[in-house]
Design brief:
This protein is of the alpha+beta class. The chain contains ten helices and ten strands. Keywords: Isomerase, Rotamase.
Length: about 300
């Protein structure tokens, strides 16, 4: 006996408007609820007051909050959307949109949030006494840049020459092995093998500070201890055999030299603390539900 086919659920739209207009209107009505799947609205487990923040909205926000695990990205996105909704509601309660002139190209909602934060979490400039107190309590933080004296032997190879770079690394490893037993030959090896003009000076680079060499070389060299590096240091130019001959801590700086740096740092700290306190107040004013569960799952 032939089984009867089940009827498909069909929704008839009784409208005189063109189909495209109807579709656009329906989409506009539910834009805040996220996209639908087979006619179903995206589920929502997160609420600020009576406003639902759907999983679709969280998924859309996750692209701006990369993390090692999707649960962590979801939690960061949820927090960001909660903060935005708290600020939006408070700006609406205070009527900030009235007589507000947004910057060119700035959405009204963004302008309201900006003005709200400027008004409620305004910058508090630390006094000179605050700065001097911080300077005296943290003497180890204010020194001239660390310097080191180094020599090197460059085995050059183009960045896109795979075989050449493999050969350069292998040769650098051989030189390191020899220098471990005969360190006095470094200048001689530099003269014979290095592709850097410093070979005429025994590979001497002089005293270096951070930022004086290419970034990839800089990062590795300033992590080395004094003596011969036990591995080749890679850069865009090839591989380097590096000998660190001296490391010097920078001299302690005077207060006047770091006054502005301290002022900027303390101002940022005060603003962040003020903003955190303000958001806590808003969270008590507009009940947030569901965020703790999302954060616990991360």
């Amino acid at each position: 006996m032939m089984e009867r086919s089940r009827p498909l659920a069909i929704t008839l739209i009784d409208s005189q408007a063109p189909v495209a207009d109807d579709a656009h209107a329906d989409r506009a009505r539910d834009a805040s609820e996220g996209p639908r799947t087979l006619g179903q609205r995206a589920p929502a487990f997160l609420f600020v007051g009576d406003t639902a923040i759907s999983e679709a909205q969280i998924a859309g926000e996750m692209q701006f909050h990369r993390a090692m695990k999707p649960e962590q990205s979801r939690a960061s996105a949820a927090r960001a959307l909660v903060v935005r909704e708290l600020l939006r509601r408070e700006a609406e309660r205070l009527g900030i949109a009235q007589d507000l002139q947004p910057h060119p190209g700035e959405p009204l909602e963004e302008a309201c949030i900006r003005v709200l934060l400027e008004r409620e979490a305004e910058s508090r400039m630390p006094s000179e006494q605050d700065c001097r107190r911080y300077f005296e309590q943290n003497p180890g933080r204010f020194h001239a840049p660390l310097r080191l004296r180094a020599r090197h032997i460059l085995l050059a190879a183009a960045a896109d020459d795979v075989n050449g770079r493999f050969s350069a690394r292998s040769r650098a490893e051989e030189l390191i092995a020899e220098l471990k037993t005969r360190p006095q030959l470094f200048a001689d090896f530099a003269l014979r093998h290095s592709d850097c003009p410093s070979k005429d000076e025994g590979g001497d680079l002089g005293w270096l500070e951070r930022g004086q060499t290419v970034p990839e070389f800089d990062r590795q060299v300033f992590r080395l201890r004094q003596g011969l590096a036990g591995f080749p240091v890679e850069s865009r130019w090839g591989y380097h055999v590096v000998q660190v001959d001296g490391i010097a801590d920078g001299e302690a700086l005077e207060f006047d030299a770091v006054h502005q740096r301290i002022r900027d740092y303390l101002e940022l700290q005060v603003r962040q603390q003020a903003l955190q306190q303000y958001l806590l107040e808003l969270q008590h004013r507009y009940t947030v539900r569901g965020l703790e569960a999302i954060e616990a799952a991360a």
